[in-house]
Amino acid sequence: xxxxxxxxxxxxxxxxxxxxxxxxxxxxxxxxxxxxxxxxxxxxxxxxxxxxxxxxxxxxxxxxxxxxxxxxxxxxxxxxxxxxxxxxxxxxxxxxxxxxxxxxxxxxxxxxxxxxxxxxxxxxxxxxxxxxxxxxxxxxxxxxxxxxxxxxxxxxxxxxxxxxxxxxxxxxxxxxxxxxxxxxxxxxxxxxxxxxxxxxxxxxxxxxxxxxxxxxxxxxxxxxxxxxxxxxxxxxxxxxxxxxxxxxxxxxxxxxxxxxxxxxxxxxxxxxxxxxxxxxxxxxxxxxxxxxxxxxxxxxxxxxxxxxxxxxxxxxxxxxxxxxxxxxxxxxxxxxxxxxxxxxxxxxxxxxxxxxxxxxxxxxxxxxxxxxxxxxxxxxxxxxxxxxxxxxxxxxxxxxxxxxxxxxxxxxxxxxxxxxxxxxxxxxxxxxxxxxxxxxxxxxxxxxxxxxxxxxxxxxxxxxxxxxxxxxxxx
Length: 475
Known about the structure:
- This protein has 11 helices and 30 strands.
- By secondary structure, the chain is of the alpha/beta class.
- Strands 20-21-22-29-24-27 form a 6-stranded antiparallel sheet, with no helix packed on it. A 5-stranded mixed barrel has the order 6-9-7-8-12.
- The longest helix has 17 residues, at 91-107.
- The protein starts with a strand and ends in a 6-residue tail after the last strand.
C-alpha cells in the first residue's frame, strides 16, 4: 500500500498577482485550465495500489481542495480523500511527521508514504509511476528516499543532491550530501560532473521509519508533534490540528530536520518532466512561443515586441517596442517585470503586506465554501458585489452591525431568512436587509444563484459579521 501525502501550503509569492494568500499557487490554473492541485491529485491517484490520498493543508483551503478532488474522483473511481487541517503554516517537518503519524495509526507503520508538494508540475505520469515503484522498494527496505531530477542546465534557484554509491540496480544512489542553492559557476560544475541532481522536494519512506528518524535526529519536533497528534480532533475525513500544541512544534523543513542529518537516505534519479513552477518564467515556458519568443495567454496586440510573456484574464493588453518582459494583468493588480528579475516579485508581496494592502491576500473575486463573491465597485459608504451561490449551498445565519444590504436576484432562486421572515426571491426580484437583522441566503435550486448585493453603511469591512450558525463550521 502507498499513501500519497500531499503538502499543500505556501503563498507562491513569486507568482503574484495571480497567486495570493487566500488563493495560493496550488489553485492557479495552468494554460490547459487545470490547477496544479488538481494535477497533483490526478498524479497521486494514478499510482498503482493507491486507494487514499492524505492532504495536509490550511483549514481555510479545505473546501477548495475538496472541490478539486471531486473532479479528480470522476476520473479515478475508488480513491478517497482525507485531510489534516493546519491552523497556520509550520513548514514541511511538522506536516510530514503529523502525516506519517496519521498513516501509521490508520494503516500500520510499514505503510509506504509518498510525500509530494501540491504546486509542482510533472508531465510524464508513466515515468513518474516507475520512479515511485523504485522508491517504494527502497522505502520497504528502510530507506528514506528523495527524488533527484537529472539537471539540464545550471539552475541557481534549486537545491542539489550529490549522489554516492549505488543502492540498487536501477541507478538509485545513496545520498552523499545536500547542497544549498549554489552560485551559477558552482551550479555549472555540478551539472558537468554528472554526480548532482536537482532536489525535487518529493520523498518516499515507510511511516514507521520516518517517525524513528525524527525521534533520532529531531527529538523536540518528534515529542511536540506526538502531543499535537494526540490533540487531533477527527471529523469524518478531516483531522483538525489543535492550534496551541501545533504552535509548540519547532518550525523547520524536513530536509534540515532529518534528511541532512541521516545516513540512511537514497536518491532515485528521475527524468519525468518535473517543474516547480517557481516563477513567472517557469509559467511562461508552458505556453508555446511565437517566432520572436513572445508567449501570450489572453488577448494581446504586440508591435515590435520580443521575448515577452503576457497573461491577461479579462482585458486586451497592448505592448509596443519592449522586450524580455513579464506582463501579468488581473482585475485589480498589474505586474510588469523584467524577466531577469522574476525572482524579485516576492519583494512586491512583502511590501504590500507591510503597507496592509489587501491585494497581497485577496483577489477581487473571493472564493468561499458556498461559492464566490466579486467586488464590482466600492466607494465612500457603499460597495457593490456579484454573489454566486452553488446549488444546494447556503451562507451562514449572520448579522452586521454597520451595514445594510440590498439583494437583487439576477438568475436562479434565493431562499432568504430576514429576521423573522422566510421568503423565496426569484429572478428580477429583490429584498432589503437592515443592519442588525439576522439573515441567511441559500440556493435551493439545481443551477447557480447569481445576485447583486449593494451594501451601504459607515463601515463595510468583511470583519463586520456575527455568525450564529454555519454549515461549514466557520466562526
